[in-house]
Amino acid sequence: MPTDLDLVRQIQAATSGNPVPKTSRLHLAIRPNARLICPIEMAGEDGSVQIVAAGRIGKPPAIYCVPEPRDRDCQGRLAGWLGRELLALFEETASEGTYPQIWTQSASSVDLLDMLSDRYRWSRVSEARLLGELLTYPAERLPRAGQQTLFAATSALRLHWQTGLAPEDEEHLGALLAWLDPPDGVSPRDAARVAERTPMGINTDPDFDRLSLNPAVSAYTVATRQSDYAAARRAEFTIREILTPVVTLIYQAVQRAIAYLQAANLPPLPELTALERREAAAFAWFMDQWRKGMKRRQRDSPARATREFALREIDQENYDAARITGDPLVRVAAELDGRVLRGVMTECGVNPNGKVWLALESEVTALRLRPGDRLVSLDGGLVKAAVRTIVQQGSTARVVLDLSARRPALPSHGTPLSFGPPPANWGKAARLGQRLKGRLTPPPWTHGANLPSSTPRLPPADPLALVESL
């Protein structure tokens, strides 16, 4: 969700005509053996992929097209081809002890791949089921903060730069790239206006569908019904010829997005290596389960859903902490929106237990802190602290912190200090998962068969008198 700071950056980019950096570090890993998968579906037919381009970074695509995506046999052939492409990637990365990485054009194509995983996972056709089972891994990793498996090119660029485009316009990969890297002598706004005329999502242009694609698909359908196989092959060739340039442009745009990220030469986030280790471990577990023939359930059990929700929250905490502590620009943004406490020390003292407390005066009044929150010093030393009180005083906020150390080296009054979330604790998720597994093994009474009986209560004789007596 866009924040006030994003709006300020957008205005600054629109005024200056230059993209505004959001980060000073690279927050994602670009695997050398990553695959680009760019699907296009038939308009009005959700999940009916008609053509897909797949390939490696810096390499030309392999393209597979079907003439009638609503036909089960055509969809089975395309699913089988894409499933074999993914299987080759999964086997290659599993043998290397790493993880697969998939790049696609935008959030809409990410949603489409997620839909295909659900649609084909339970298919009776083995080749289609293979695609659904393999897509399950990136689909399940997608909600985990810091995942390194499935990226939309638009999301990867927006993570690092802010343009003058509206958030919904930034989902058009061509317009986003045109703003970030316009042709010589052309303003970013004009370049984006021209680029947005070219389809970059999962659907083609409506006029293109009406004038070119639909007549060819109709000709194929009529020919197959009349068993005119020569005419059907001609129509199939026409469909491929008119769709190939469209999907090729999208594939090339994803290549440009990856090249733009690489050319920025941003140093990697310090915790990026840890994120990759977690990804490799998650993928190794998935492949072990898949090779054993373990099937995913259509619906999570209450215990699994609870555990997954808790682990997602821990992943989000760790990822936020890794970005704040590892990237100066992200830290400044966190100070402005209240996730990091930055203020001037005005008072200090000693608690009855011998530990030191200090008070900070912050100009950010909308602090995202609560009494009891655990913080650490971001100015070096990793001094731990706990929030005692937060008091609004006009245009400032007074925050009292209890330090964990008994004799810390305190700066003089008036010194600016920063306190933020503790460093990422990558082992916390595994420990919590084990604890929850033990606690949630017996289902709670709310999900058991023997629910406690309730005694019916009669309504009060005079509801108004009852309310007035409260």
Rg, Å, rounded? 28 Å
**Range of helix content:** 40-55%
Write down the secondary-structure element order. Answer: HEEEEHEHHEHEHHHHHHHEEEEEEHH
Low-pLDDT segments, ≥5 res? none
Roughly what fraction of the amino acids lie in strands? Answer: 15-25%
Kindly describe this structure.
Helix content is 47%, strand content 16%. It starts with a helix and ends with a helix. The protein is globular and about 95 Å long. It contains 14 helices and 13 strands. The strands form three sheets. A six-stranded antiparallel β-barrel has the order 8-9-12-11-10-13. Strands 4-3-2-5-6 form a five-stranded mixed beta sheet, with helices on both faces. Strand 8 and strand 9 (356-362) form a beta hairpin. It has three domains: 4-274; 297-340 and 423-439; 341-420, Elongation Factor Tu (Ef-tu), domain 3, CATH 2.40.30.230. It has 470 residues and is α+β, with helices and mostly antiparallel strands. The relative contact order is 0.11.
